[in-house]
């Protein structure tokens, strides 16, 4: 029983130090390697660590942080899109209302005998 608990504790300690290759990261996140390169060029890729002279690895923690950042980015973009849609809709409604013969200003002008 104690040996089992120690083994579980050891696994918990080891998880944060485990790393992924770029290919493993791409498979886990369902993106292509070229997409990962483009993200890295934009500065939107995960944090990487260099192992040796040419081996690039990504920690699980870096992967989680990258996923959270993408989620925040998506939510922010979705909110902005919704605001733009709402603004466009309100603008359309305002123009339609102003052009309507039932608009209060048009009624006042008609009552005074002016053309609208």
Task: Please explain how this structure is put together.
This protein has 116 residues and is mostly helical. The chain has one domain (14-111): Orthogonal Bundle (Multidrug-efflux Transporter Regulator, Chain: A, Domain 2), CATH 1.10.1660. 68% of the residues lie in helices and 9% in strands. It contains five helices and three strands; from the N terminus they run αβααββαα. The chain has helices at 2-14, 22-29, 33-42, 60-99, 104-111, and strands at 19-20, 49-51, 55-59. It has a three-stranded antiparallel beta sheet. The protein is rod-shaped and about 85 Å long.
> Which fold does the CATH topology refer to?
Multidrug-efflux Transporter Regulator, Chain: A, Domain 2
* Radius of gyration of CA atoms, rounded to a whole number: 29 Å
In DSSP terms, counting alpha (H) and pi (I) runs of 4 or more, how many helices? 5
Instruction: Indicate the structural class.
Output: mainly alpha
Estimate the strand proportion. Answer: 5-15%
Helix content: 55-70%
One letter per element, helices H and strands E, the order comes to HEHHEEHH
Label this structure with key terms.
3 strands, mainly alpha, 5 helices, 116 residues, three-stranded antiparallel β-sheet
